[in-house]
Write a structure and sequence with these properties.
heterodimer, A: 363 residues, alpha/beta, abc type-2 transporter like fold, B: 314 residues, Rossmann fold, Alpha-Beta Plaits, 2 domains, six-stranded mixed sheet, four-stranded antiparallel sheet, 27% strand, binds adenosine-5'-triphosphate, binds magnesium ion
Chain lengths: 363, 314
């Protein structure tokens, strides 16, 4: 490998990119837009969720507890009903997002320290579900304060979606999703475009080697991927107070692994696709399962076994485990080494395949 | 070092059932401008790509600059320049950036890159276009840039695939001046073309038709073979005369040029009296004169003969 040639290819790629307004706009616009969309939705829906109450105890204690819940502003009273069954009906009809059941033996349960309130949630909506999760943490004031426990325990029963997700989960996930979408597409298209325009016929008649060509085309995009990561993280921390509990170095390491995995996948696609359109189709063929099966949308644990196998093959799955572990739980690479190894293996396989399948020939 | 630049034997390329190039034998001497003529789809580009090592031949052997192709294609790539039929430089880089990129990729040092690019910009009249994007150049300017890009590393052998399509006659003449300059410096040039005036300028040329090599030699040799078979017919009613002649056996082709007809006969007893007799019914003042054959005639004979051979049952 000749470094001067490699450098020439990288410079050429960056110069072309600078003139490509649409791609430039996508690079920065997409992460910002997606982040704002997700973030905006998270913030808005946390307030004024329509709720109904079935107060079967009708004691002063139960009424005070309910009032406290509504005082949080997260939920808003829509209806008073008699039985939990009626709450379920309203939930199913979509008229309310949250139902609160006060059992007839509310006072007794509270004294025993058992779960005294039940919050029924429309779990098909992630945001509602996480909001209810917050409700469950809400400290209820005790009307008469001679009990040892200051908090009335509330149990949250989530319907339709057993895993409780917090909005904080979304930002680290978004880093992975955006990198998956842009990195694969950019590289796949970058090489196929040269084939389409006829540039490749010129390039392969020069002494440029396959490795120089592939690495030279891919490295600039790796830089762009890191830039995108920085933008999403910075906005996530600044706008939505996403915690960064692990080390920043580890996060960038994980991001680099995902970027390289996606770039090598993009290269592989570029060796097979005949046109830019085909390259895009193939990218989305990979992108869709990444979104659906990686654990970004639906929890891994809830998937059928076959889906879990597929999930294990996707780089995004391993990145999500890494980045959530590092950012939210403060884990490091030592704890999550098998996901890092999985990504490395993916990179090795894809790169080898891509370089083998790419020939400096036209047939 | 031998004085043969390209030697191909039995060169064949199949795309599925289509035979794009069929058992072509080719010998190109060094420091020659070698022309490659043939109608659309006759296999010119395919042959050039095989000679560069970009396509793998279905059969046959190739030796270029003493290297066996496609096995030693990588070694060859340092020593050849290739100007593709379609403009293949980067539309979204400037003229200067394109040349600098190619120079670096071809292994020129930083200093050599700068001086060589300056030199090429001057030589190919592009120095006032340096910052312009290649995609916005005119057709002729693009061709000059592509040629400059192909010779940036001073290759021994240059493949030019229809370098002057879409270029006005003046610029074409200019372009050919540059080719002869390169040939004088010792560069071997293989150039494909549709233009007869360009073919005329080549030291040697080969005519391809339907993937077959149907004629090759110097322009003089090729035209000499047709001596005595071409006639010029002057008449008041060229259209009627053409209709009459078109159906006559022994007449290979009739082309109207203004008010004159250029008639090409098959090689069995061509003679002016025969034509006069046949045209007797057309009008009183028919004048038939023998003329010197040109390469267009060579081209017609070569491509016709092959077609008629194919029509005959085996
Ligand atoms: N990759 C390919 N796949 C299938 N057929 C091909 C391919 N490349 C060329 N051909 C066919 O091979 C034949 C020769 O094509 P080629 O491009 O060599 O012609 P050419 O002489 O360069 O024509 P032109 O003067 O139009 O450039 C054509 O019939 C063409 O359709
Ligand atoms: Mg061609």
């Amino acid at each position: 490998m000749n470094l001067r040639r490699l450098w020439a290819i990288m410079v050429k790629e960056l110069r072309q990119l600078r003139r490509d307004r649409v791609t430039l706009a996508m690079i920065m616009g997409m992460p910002i837009l997606q982040l704002l969309l997700f973030g905006y939705a998270i913030n808005l829906n946390l307030r004024h969720l329509p709720a109904a109450v079935a107060d079967q105890a009708q004691t002063s204690g139960s009424r005070a507890a309910i009032q406290d819940l509504f005082a949080s502003g997260v939920i808003e009273l829509d209806a008073q009903v008699q039985t939990p069954q009626q709450l379920l009906d309203l939930l199913r009809q979509g008229r309310i997002s949250v139902g609160i059941v006060v059992p007839p033996d509310f006072e007794r349960r509270r004294l025993d320290g058992r779960e005294a309130l039940q919050v029924l949630v429309d779990g098909s909506d992630n945001v509602v579900q996480s909001a209810a999760g917050q409700l469950a943490q809400y400290p209820l004031n005790q009307p008469d304060n001679f009990h040892a426990r200051a908090i009335t325990p509330i149990s949250v029963v989530s319907f339709y979606n057993p895993e409780r997700r917090s909005p904080v989960n979304i930002v680290p996930g978004l880093v992975g999703v955006i990198l998956t979408m842009t990195m694969v597409l950019f590289t796949a298209v970058a090489i196929v475009r040269e084939t389409e325009r006829g540039n490749l016929e010129l390039l392969i008649t020069t002494p440029v080697s396959r490795t120089e060509l592939m690495i030279g085309k891919v490295l600039p995009y790796a830089g762009i991927g890191l830039l995108q990561t920085t933008v999403i993280l910075a906005l996530g921390v600044w706008l939505f107070r996403v915690p960064v509990r692990g080390s920043l170095g580890d996060i960038y390491m994980a991001a680099s692994l995902l970027i390289l995995a996606n770039l090598s996948l993009g290269l592989l696609i570029s060796t097979r696709a005949k046109s830019q359109f085909q390259a895009m189709q193939m990218t989305f063929f990979v992108f869709l399962p990444s979104i659906l099966l990686s654990g970004f949308m639906f929890p891994y644990a809830g998937m059928p076994v076959v889906a879990q196998w597929i999930s294990e093959l996707l780089p995004l799955t391993h990145f999500l485990r890494l980045v959530r572990g590092i950012m939210l739980r403060g884990a490091d690479f030592g704890d999550l080494w098998h996901d890092a190894v999985a990504l490395l293996a993916f990179i090795a396989v894809m790169l080898t395949l891509a370089i083998r399948l790419f020939h400096k020939r036209l047939d | 070092m031998t004085d043969i630049a390209i030697q191909a034997r039995g060169l064949t390329k199949r795309f599925g059932t289509l035979v794009a190039v069929n058992a072509v034998d080719l010998t190109v001497p060094r420091a020659h401008v070698y022309g490659f003529l043939g109608p659309n789809g006759s296999g010119k580009s395919t042959t050039i790509r095989m000679l560069c090592g970009l396509l793998t031949p279905s059969a046959g052997t190739i030796e270029v600059l003493g290297l066996s192709i496609p096995r030693q294609a990588e070694q060859l790539k340092r020593r050849i320049g290739y100007m593709t039929q379609k403009f293949s430089l980067f539309d979204d880089l400037s003229v200067r950036q394109n040349l600098e990129f190619l120079a670096t990729v071809q292994g020129l040092s930083r200093h050599d890159t700068r001086t060589r690019v300056d030199e090429l910009l001057l030589r190919y009249h592009l120095d006032d276009r340096q910052p312009q994007l290649a995609g916005t150049l005119s057709g002729g300017q693009k061709q000059r840039l592509a040629l400059a890009g192909a010779v940036v590393h001073r290759p021994e052998l240059l493949f030019l695939d229809e370098p002057t399509s879409a270029v006005d006659p003046e610029s074409r003449r200019d372009f050919w001046e540059k080719l002869f300059e390169l040939a004088d410096e010792g560069t071997t040039i293989l150039v494909s073309s549709h233009y007869m005036d360009e073919a005329e300028r080549c030291h040697r040329l080969a005519i391809l038709d339907n993937g077959n090599l149907v004629a090759d030699g110097t322009p003089r040799d090729l035209t000499a073979k047709l001596q005595g078979r071409t006639f010029l017919v002057r008449t008041d009613s060229p259209r009627r005369a053409k209709q009459v002649l078109d159906t006559q056996p022994g007449v290979l082709s009739v082309a109207q040029i203004g008010n004159e007809l250029r008639v090409l006969m098959t090689d069995t007893h061509p003679n002016a009296d025969l034509l006069r007799g046949k045209l007797a019914g057309v009008g009183a003042d028919v004048d038939v004169q023998p003329v010197e054959p040109n390469l267009e005639d060579v081209f017609v004979v070569a491509t016709r003969r092959h077609a008629s051979q194919q029509e005959q049952p085996a």
